[in-house]
Amino acid sequence: MSTFYVTTPIYYPNSEPHAGNAYTTIAADVLARYHRLKGNEVCFLTGVDEHAANVYNAAKEVGLSPQAYCDKIAPTFVKLWERLNISHDIFFRTTSDVHKRGAQKFLNVLYNNGDVYKGKYEGYYCLSCEEFFSEKELTDEKICPVHKLPLQWLEEENYFFRLSKYQDRLLAHIHENPDFVYPPARRNELLSFLESGLQDVSISRASLSWGIPFPFDPEHIIYIWIEALSNYITALGYETDSEQYRTFWPADVHMMGKDITRFHALLWPAMLMAADLPLPKHIVGHGWLTKDGEALSKTRGIFIDMDGDITTYGVDAFRYYLLREFSFGNDGDYRPARLHARYNADLANDLGNLLNRVLGLVNKNFEGVPAPTTSGEFDDEIKAMAQATIDQLDAHIKTFAFDAALETIWEFVRRINRYVQQTQVWTLAKPETKPRMGTILYTSLEALRIISVLISPFISDTAEKIQNQIGLTEFDTATAWGGLPVGIKVSRGEPIFPRIDTKKPKQPKAEAKPKKKAEKKTTHLVAFADFQKLDLRVAKILTAESIEGADRLLKLQIDLGTEKRQLVAGIAEHYTPEELVGKQVIVVANLEPATIRNVESQGMVLAGSGDAVVLATLEKEMPVGTQVR
Ligand code: ME8
Question: From ligand 1's centre to the CA of 343, what distance in Å?
C-alpha cells in the first residue's frame, strides 16, 4: 500500500477561519479522499499556528491571555472543518507539548549542524505576515502590500539561519524536479527570486514573550515561521522518531495559497537540507480567492458569506463551486450568482435530474435494477467513456487541476443525459423492446454509480445519496464496469439538489441591491435617437469553438461584410459549434469590446433568451453587413 501525506498551512487563529482558509482545506481534503479511495494509506494534517504576534495582539485587545484566546478560537476551525466535511486525520495545535518539544529538537539539530549563528537584525517588519521586508521589497510608504498596514521598524540581536548557504542546492532541486512547485507560474516566480540571491534569515525574537524559547538560549523565542514550518514533522512525531513520522515523512503535498509558497519552497526545504531530512514532494500554491476583486482579509473585513451560502445551497454545492469555478493556480472572484448558476445547471439539472429520471423509469418498469441483456448503439461507447473518465480524472488530480477534474466527470454526466435522450429509453416499455430498455437503464445506473465514486472526494454527501437511491447499502468504491448488482431495489428519494428558484436567489443581506431590483420592474422608454445609436447588422458565423473552462460560452468568428470579428456568446448549452457555422445572425456591431474569460468579444449576438436560448435571425437571408432597424 502506498502512503500519502497531505497538509494545509496551519492557520493563524487571530480570528475565526474565513473562506480562503476553507478553500485550501477543501482542496487538500479532495486529495486526501481521492487517495483513500485509491486504497492508499493517508495522513491529512491541518491545524493552527498559535504563537503569532497577530494572535498575541488579538488576545490583548479582548483582555485574554494568548493561550486562553487560542483555546477559544482553535475550536472554531474544527467546527468549520466539520461543517465542510473535512476528513483530516490530525488537527494540530502549535501550543501542544509535542510541537514545542519537536520544534526545539529541530532547532537544536540546525544549531549543532552549524547553520544557526548570532548576529544583529534591523529592518521593517509586518506583524500580520510575520516577515521582514528587504530594501528591494519596500515601497516609499512602507506599507505591507498584502495587509495594507504600516510596517514596523524592528532592531534586535538575533539568531540567523544560513539560508544563503542553500541557494545553489535549492536552485538545483527546483530545476531537477520540475513538479516540485505547482503551478509552473509559481515555480518561475521562485526561480527568479532565487536567482536574485538569498540572504540569511533572522530566526529568533528577543522582544517577544509569546512563543517557544530557544533550546540553547531561553531569552529568545523561535521565529514564528521556523517554528510553524516544523509542524509538518512535529505533528507526525518527529521528536520521538515515531512510527507515524517514519511512515509519512516526506510529505507528498503541502497545499497553500500563493502568499506563503516562498516560505515552503525555499525556507522549509533549506531547513530540511540543514537537518539532513528528505524534502516534501510537491509544494502547491493556489490562487487568491477575492471578493469583488479584493483580497479577503481578516484585518480589512473583506469576507465571503460562507455560512449564508452553505445554508442556502448546501456544503456540497459550496465545495463544488469553489473547485469547479476557478482554475486552481489562478485568482478567482467569488460570486454568489455564479454559485447559484452552477447549482442549478451542473448539480440540479445535469446530475440531479439524470438520477431522478433514470430511477423513475426503473421504478415504473422494473422490480429493481434490470439486467443488461442486449447490446445496442452507444452502450460500448459509454463503457469506454467511464474508463476514459477515470483515467483523465487521475491525470488532472496529479496536476492539481480540480476544475478540469470536475469538468471531465461532468462531460460523462452530460454524455449519460444524451444517451438517455438519444435512445429515447422511455418509449421502450413495450414487451418486445423492454430488454433493450433494461440494458439502457442498467448502463445509465452503472454509469451513475461510477460517477458517484468519482465525485466522492469532492462532494461526498452527494455521492452517498446517489448510492443510497440506487439501492446500495454500503458505499461501493469500485470503479470497474459492471459492479452494480442486478435486482437491488432502487428508491427514488428526494431530489439530491432541489432546484432553487432563479427569480429569488437567496443572497446575503450585504449583497442585496434593492434599488436595482426596483428599477427592473419599471419599463424604461428609450428615445428614438438613443435606439438609433445601436448599430445592428446581419452577420454570418464563420467558425465557432468552445472556450476552455467556460461551459456556457462559445467563441465565434463572424463576417460583418466590411470586416471579420470575434465574439463571445453564452449559447454553448443550446447550440453545438457545428450547428452554428454558416448561420446568419443579428449582432450589435458597435458595442464596447469586452474581455470574457480572457477572450475578447467585439460585439454581441442577439438571441431570445428564456428557458431556452434561440438565436435571432432574419426571415430570409440578406447580404452580410445589412443594417437591421
Ligand atoms: O500564513 N484566497 O496563516 P494564515 C485563498 N500561519 N486562500 C487564502 C486566502 C484567500 N484570499 N486567504 C488565506 C499563515 N488563504 C501561516 C501559515 S504554515 C507553516 C504557516 C489561505 O492564517 C491560503 O492557504 O494567514 C493561505 O496560504 C493561508 O490561508 C494563510 O493563512
Answer: 27
